[in-house]
Amino acid sequence: MRGVCAVAIVALLLPISCIHEQRGGCPTYMTLDLSSIPESVENLHMILEYEGRGIYADTIYREEFGGVYERAVPKGSANMAIFGNISNMRYEEGYIAPPGLPLDDIYTYFTKIEIRDDLMNERITLLKNHIGVHIRICEPSEADDSGINMEIMGSTVGYDNEGTPVSGEFYHSPLPSHIPTEGEEYYIFGTRLPRLTPEDDFTLRISSASDGVTVAVIPILEKIAQSGYDLSSPELEDLYIEIDISRSAIKISAEGFNSIFHVETTF
User: Fold this and answer.
1) I need a labelling partner for 203 at 20 to 30 A (CA). Which of 61, 115, 242, 261 fits?
2) Tens-digit pLDDT profile for residues 162-174
């Protein structure tokens, strides 16, 4: 009797047409395997972008990752985009960083899917899709007690629903996370950038905090390319950039400021 009741309940939940022969308008019950989501990811924003038919969107929070995620979604060909850890980025047919802010600590998953059957399973494997940039600046002699300002400028601002970087004006002027102290006479600044190509712009401008006089302007992307950093890697590593303005020298590493594995160049 219990089995009969269960069948009756399911039948009531489905559109009447879905229990007859013609099932083209019936939804697909999609189950997502979220078991491999990194612990640092707090939320997922899922977008299904159908060809010429709009989008389906849903947000999944960490407390739901351990259970079974199942939703009824429309059938058809769709781009599936999953953006993890969205907080400040805004949706514009993808997610982009607003002016003045860095990317979120974003993880992503992109694929093209054919939603045809009544049931579908998809395993979600997120990849870190931002470059955490850590910048250490040896205190320049041009800076007075008021310190220095850092401006970070770029030409990409996020990703569309197919995972393609979105062109736009990236600008972030972060506050220092470390200021010079006795024995540690340097500044540290940080930002997060989207995936870059050799044709993109990534420039640092360092200026005096008191009067805004420019201390240095450094087109940094070409220096990163010289370091051997893999801009095309499926999962992006952080970058550690040390700038010695008095020597016009830059050290770049993907392993830390004090790593022996670094490339040194000039500007």
Assistant:
1) 261
2) 999 999 999 999 9
